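Milestone 3.1: sequence recovery, worked example.
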């Protein structure tokens, strides 16, 4: 089974579990003057509960297998002309928020709205002293800005081609 198949199966199983919880909530009790919907409604509710429990076990098995696969499978992704090797799990974290934090750090390098010019009566020339290289800053902002979409594109292929490790 491929990663993408396990992800989709997990989603389908969650829908089935939702449906079973709804059925149990709707049919778990009735008044003695009502006709039950099912011939042996108590047995039916018990079967739904057991089915739900079985589905939870399968979801857990799939999730753990996905996590194991994500941790153990190393993927090379081209970033700025270099192949960077990380586990799928590491790429997911880069995609989720870490690349964005890197971009924010580089964006925090600013001139702080300081203005160059002449100061006071002595007309002392005032210049901005930058503690960074603006070209490197701009290159890094662009790199970290595009990293999530590059990761997404690569992980779509990886998820479709990588076998689940169980």
């Amino acid at each position: 089974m491929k990663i993408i198949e396990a992800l989709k199966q997990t989603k389908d199983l969650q829908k089935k579990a939702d449906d079973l919880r709804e059925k149990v909530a709707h049919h778990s009790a009735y008044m003695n003057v009502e006709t039950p919907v099912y011939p042996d409604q108590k047995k039916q509710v018990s079967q739904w509960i057991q089915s739900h429990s079985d589905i939870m076990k399968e979801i857990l098995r799939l999730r753990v297998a996905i996590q194991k696969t994500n941790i153990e499978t190393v993927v090379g992704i081209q970033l700025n002309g270099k192949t960077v090797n990380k586990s799928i799990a590491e790429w997911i974290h880069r995609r989720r928020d870490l690349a964005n934090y890197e971009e924010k750090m580089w964006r925090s390098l600013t001139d702080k709205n300081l203005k160059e010019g002449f100061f006071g009566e002595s007309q002392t020339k005032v210049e901005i002293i930058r503690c960074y290289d603006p070209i490197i800053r701009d290159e890094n902002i662009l790199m970290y800005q595009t990293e999530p979409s590059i990761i997404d594109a690569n992980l779509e292929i990886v998820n479709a081609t990588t076998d689940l490790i169980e």
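The beta strands are 74-79, 82-87, 117-119, 124-126. The radius of gyration is 28 Å.
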